[in-house]
């Protein structure tokens, strides 16, 4: 069976330069003993991603939650699934290389969080998919 490629970003050069924002999906799957513990773990991960993204100095980042789901499992644990968007509004020159570098740095950051957890630890999973271009963020003039 042939696997489909795991495309994280695809655009022509004009689209990359013209993008006002780049939207990176970040999905969490967290298993904890309580709802509150799962939510706290999700918040800690997203806070860490946002903090490390700001250190990239490639633009401004915001995180927007898209959905959340709590499931009580038969074994008594809580499985929380959450979908978020890490939105990058690039700064600096609107040229191909600086924009491509900003996208690559952000993808590398997200990938670091997607690495498999240590063996025997399946409490937290971070996943991503293809980034997309977005328009101006709410509250930005234009």
Description:
This protein has about 140 residues and is α+β, with helices and mostly antiparallel strands. It has a single domain (about 15-115), classed as Alpha-Beta Plaits (2-Layer Sandwich). It contains three helices and five strands. The protein has helices spanning about 15-20, 35-55, 95-115; strands at about 20-30, 60-70, 80-90, 125-130, 130-135. Strands 1, 2, 3, 4 and 5 form a five-stranded antiparallel sheet that branches. A hairpin with a 5-residue loop joins β2 (about 60-70) and β3. The longest helix is centred in the first third of the chain and has 20 residues, at about 35-55. It starts with 12 loop residues before the first helix and ends in an 8-residue tail after the last strand. The mean pLDDT is about 90.
What's the short story on this structure?
The chain has 142 residues and is of the alpha+beta class. 32% of the residues lie in helices and 33% in strands.
Question: In CATH's first tier, which class applies?
Answer: Alpha Beta
Give unreliable regions as ranges. none
Provide the helix percentage.
25-40%
Largest sheet: 5 strands, antiparallel
Number of domains: 1
Architecture, CATH level 2?
Answer: 2-Layer Sandwich
The count of helical stretches stands at: 3
Features of this protein?
Alpha-Beta Plaits, elongated, 5-stranded antiparallel β-sheet, 142 residues, 5 strands
């Amino acid at each position: 069976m042939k696997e489909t490629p795991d495309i994280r970003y695809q655009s022509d050069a004009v689209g990359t330069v013209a993008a006002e924002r780049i939207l990176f999906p970040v999905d969490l799957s967290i298993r904890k003993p309580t709802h509150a513990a799962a939510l706290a773990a999700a918040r800690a991960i997203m806070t860490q991603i946002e903090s490390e993204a700001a250190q990239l100095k490639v633009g401004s980042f915001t995180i927007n939650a898209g959905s959340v789901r709590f499931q009580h499992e038969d074994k008594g644990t809580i499985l929380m699934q959450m979908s978020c968007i890490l939105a990058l509004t690039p700064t600096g020159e609107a040229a191909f290389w600086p924009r491509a570098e900003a996208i690559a740095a952000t993808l590398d950051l997200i990938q670091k969080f997607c690495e498999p957890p240590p063996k025997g630890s399946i409490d937290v999973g971070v996943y991503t998919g293809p980034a997309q271009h977005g328009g101006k963020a709410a509250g930005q003039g234009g």
